[in-house]
Design goal:
single chain; alpha/beta; Rossmann fold; 8-stranded mixed beta sheet; 13 helices
Length: 392
């Protein structure tokens, strides 16, 4: 065998030399397939590991608040998982205005609603807050690890909570209309559920994002850290990142056993639903561009408030009085449907502000503190965008 090896090598070389064009084409095609596949596999592996192991900032229960007492209730997700919730009602003597469901951020629990919902209770709203599965006192699903991205499991949880709320409203003889108030991952889940549930009449979301778009942004950031060749990661076309994102979510489906629906797509198919977006201007984890993008995709009526100086999920701490005013007045306008001239979401008020800004007329101090707001296009021909700094 060893004696014939030179003859075999010679035969191979002869075949290559006689068919060099064919072999060149095959080698080129092989490189065009193998090299991108190796790069793609590396990026997917890195993204999957960071997605699995990275914990976002402030992902611990916020304890700098006094808990609000209420009725502890067990409810069930759409797939049967037991969830622990708490039902809070307005103080005695306060007229009831409506029901708001609060969806906490990742790794927080039902009691964190005290940071956000106390003004709603004082205004007359019933508030139901709950622990997502694997959080607080809710049951854990075997084989499922919750992550900071809204999955089909969180959708199942919130769908079950809304079903419970519908039954309670019917039992009490109240209109079956619900407001949603979500923080970060809870905000994403609120949008995903509202897109397919007509009983949701108004939605407030703080720190919302779309998992697909956010992960693409993070993958580009991670590529700069882990890629060894600068030319490679700086010259990927947009199609590469979209395909990488698709590969990542397909891999997640098999690795994690769940899906991560797109908030962007949910907003595109959502029927007109009042939406108030809140986002911290200094949020370094979920860039403020996320809320701007989602706002642009959302149907009217919609509003956007960028809280100057606020970091991730800290808007309520930076401007507590303004936060309370905006959230209460939003639900007053679109859930309670109480017409009040002083309500900042009255369309005529925004029209006056827009015309004043256009004509150079000075605005009142309260109007100057409106943050970034928009008026529904259906309400006026003028859209108001007023930017200012919130008071610390």
């Amino acid at each position: 065998m060893l004696a014939t090896s030179p003859f075999m090598l010679g035969g191979i070389w002869t075949a290559i030399s006689h068919n060099w064009a064919l072999f060149s084409i095959l080698l080129t095609l092989l490189l065009l397939v193998i090299v991108p596949a190796l790069v793609l596999a590396k990026y997917v592996r890195i993204s999957l590991n960071i997605m699995k192991d990275t914990v976002p900032p402030l992902s611990v229960p916020q304890l700098c608040f006094d808990r609000i007492p209420g009725e502890e209730r067990d409810v069930f997700a759409a797939d049967g998982i037991r969830l622990r919730g708490i039902f809070m009602h307005p103080p005695p003597g306060v007229s009831r205005r409506g029901l708001v469901i609060f969806a906490p951020e990742f790794m927080s629990d039902r009691n964190s609603c005290a940071r956000y919902c106390r003004p709603l209770l004082e205004a007359g709203y019933d508030v139901f807050s709950f622990d997502f599965r694997g959080h607080g006192e809710s049951a854990k699903e075997e084989g499922f690890n919750p992550r900071q991205w809204a999955s089909d499991r969180e959708i199942s949880d919130m769908t079950g909570v809304i079903s419970f709320a519908e039954q309670w409203l019917e039992k009490m003889g109240y209109p079956v209309e619900i407001g949603l108030f979500g923080i970060s991952r809870g905000a994403c889940t609120s949008i995903l559920v509202a897109a397919q549930n007509p009983v949701v009449k108004a939605i407030v979301v703080d720190g919302a994002f779309s998992s697909d778009h956010t992960l693409e942004h993070l993958m580009k950031r991670w590529a700069k850290i882990f890629a060894k060749v600068k030319f490679v990661y700086e010259n990927h076309p947009p199609e590469f990142w979209r395909f990488l994102r698709w590969c990542l979510f397909v891999t997640c489906r098999f690795k994690f056993g769940c899906t991560y629906p797109s908030v962007k797509k949910a907003l595109k198919r959502m029927p007109p639903r009042p939406l108030l977006f809140v986002h911290g201007q200094r949020d370094s984890y979920i860039p403020v561009e996320q809320s701007r993008m989602l706002y642009a995709l959302a149907p009217q009526p919609k509003y956007l408030w960028i809280v100057q100086g606020a970091k991730h999920n800290q808007s309520v701490d930076m401007a507590p009085a303004e936060y309370a005013r905006r959230t209460v007045q939003f639900f007053d306008q679109y859930l309670w449907r109480k017409a009040e001239p002083s309500n900042m979401y009255q369309p005529d008020r925004f029209v006056r502000m827009a015309r004043s800004a256009r004509d150079g007329v000075a605005r009142s101090p309260r109007d100057q503190n409106e943050g970034e707001s928009r008026v529904p296009a259906s309400s006026a021909n003028v859209t108001a965008e007023v930017a200012s700094k919130s008071q610390n």
